[in-house]
Amino acid sequence: MTEATTNAQTLPGLVVENSKIRGSKPAMREKYLGIWETYSWSDYANHVAELALGLKAIGFGAGDKLAVIGDNRPRLYWAQLAAQALGGASVPVYQDSIADELAYVLSDADVSVIFAEDQEQVDKMLSIEDRLPQVKQIVYCDDRGLSDYDHKLLKSYEAVIELGVNGDRAAYEAGVQALDANTVALMCYTSGTTGKPKGVMLNHANLVAAAKAFVSVEDVRESDDFLSYLPMAWVGDVTYSLATSLLTGASCNCPEGPETLLRDMRELGPTGILAAPRAWENFLSDIQVKAEDITGLKKFVYNRFSNAALTAMRKQEDGKSPSLCDRINLVLGELLIYSPIRDQLGLRRARWALTGGAPLGPDTFRFFRALGINLKQVYGSTEISGLGSIQRDGEANPDSVGKPIEGINLRIADNGELQVKGANVFVGYYKNEDAFKEAVSEDGWFKTGDAGVLEENGELTIIDRAKDVGKLEDGSAFAPQFVENKLKYSPYIAEAISFGNERPSVCAMIAIDFNTVGKWAERQTLPYTNYMDLSQKQEVLDLISAEVSSINRTLPEPLQVKRFLILGKDFDADDAEITRTRKLRRSFIAEQYEPVITAFYSGASVVDLRAEVTFEDGRKSHVDMNLKIQDAA
């Protein structure tokens, strides 16, 4: 790894240094209309400088907030850095957020300028204009469909650039060099699993420290290509894509869009990648479904060598050496199965792959490791700049999230809660000093809310959210995520939430994977009209029942699912059931689905449920469901 500089301690400072050190090297690419457009570090620095001078011309300055909304686009990254170069802060928001969510975050953050990707995002902003009196300008990056728009708040990206083209570059660079690393650079809003999202304030020193910690233990190179596809509002994209790229000179690559992500990923072949557990679960489901569709010799070859890889993986975990037969199988498997699958996933060049943001099921983790993908777990949260611990090469296992990195200190409090201290820890919640005082101990440690264990060898194991860990009536320990991750290993199960704390047994609500179950139904010539219809077919109930029974055999007896129900709709972030990063809002779900929980433990066989549905514009409706409760075999 080669750092860009040892002097620059701010993100805009790193941009300037990169333009001087490696000006002609590719810094960012964007795929548009099927063609990758490349921007050098000089191009990158010029765009940021011109944007910053343009923003200054319209009145943006130190302490102001700039929001970006849209898919990953170079212009949206540059806008954030331009705001930071002027002493302001960027506030990235989730592009699929509904109007109420956007209005709350943008108002709470006191955002004055918004950069919107396209017409869709502009329309969202204009629909909540009356709730955002502090917004002075909405800048659109893509003008398609906006030619007839005439609104005082709207300005094109090109118009802002034009204002900055003839600005004072020397004064701009002097301002960047004088920028204090303790200035707040980023405000990332928490996912709001337990209440209203909070604005986490991260300064330049936090983000640079996290990036330096990451590259001190991971093999990151100047020649690397990262795929910038994670939501920009997630701290993982900022730390592992933007800040690390700026620190090392690696290139960020923006796919054409979500619908072309897998194709663009195969085309690019990133050298390192971070993906949320849901992405790895989707990859696995896709592989499993394709494996179900093949027959004959191909089916035999896949089953033999995938099982051989998993067998060798388990021997390795147990400290055993592979036999001669194992080694022969692995060589043949690499030729016939493992390498082709990695190529199809777009991971043929990846030296490392990370999973973080939530626990990944151990079976899913083993599967990808067995295929020769250097998948490792990382632990982090918004408040610690996305990084607390990471697995090193040769130490990856499904049960831990690795060891802390030098400069990042971990401890377990008396109540079993993990606490973190280091240069990467945030500086406060915006306009919420009381919440900050509650989140930080008297001696300065951030209380993560996660229940964890630090092993003798330094490995950190995360059990669950501290508030979610409980016990069954018989005293058996109950960690709901452990059960849910087991269930989600099935390609037919997209999401699950389990109950059991202070209850006699474990029960679960399951949401099917509509695409996977739909393909299965087509193979069975089973007609269906929509999600509700498909999920309640008796054949689907039998399919999921068989999956639950199979999964139960891998669970300790007290944690086996005794009763379950298949929902008539998937959990949806718009309905506040999950966060935008797909974390379950357990307390909300428990309240909304209280009739189901009552039916589970009363012995009822059916339950009537009215579920609320929220549309993107904030309108609400409801759907009535009559659901069958299944007893697990």
Q: Which characteristics define this entry?
A:
alpha/beta; Rossmann fold; GMP Synthetase, Chain A, domain 3; 3 domains; 5-stranded mixed sheet; disordered N terminus
What does this structure look like?
The chain is built from 21 helices and 28 strands. The protein is of the alpha/beta class. The chain has 3 domains: 11-271, Rossmann fold (3-Layer(aba) Sandwich); 277-348 and 350-465, Rossmann fold (3-Layer(aba) Sandwich), CATH 3.40.50; 470-631, ANL, C-terminal domain (GMP Synthetase, Chain A, domain 3). The strands form 7 sheets. It has a 5-stranded parallel β-sheet with strand order 4-3-5-6-7, sandwiched between helices. A 5-stranded mixed β-sheet has the order 12-13-14-15-16. Strand 1 (26-32) and strand 2 (35-40) form a beta hairpin. Helix 2 (41-57) crosses helix 6. It is globular and about 75 Å long.
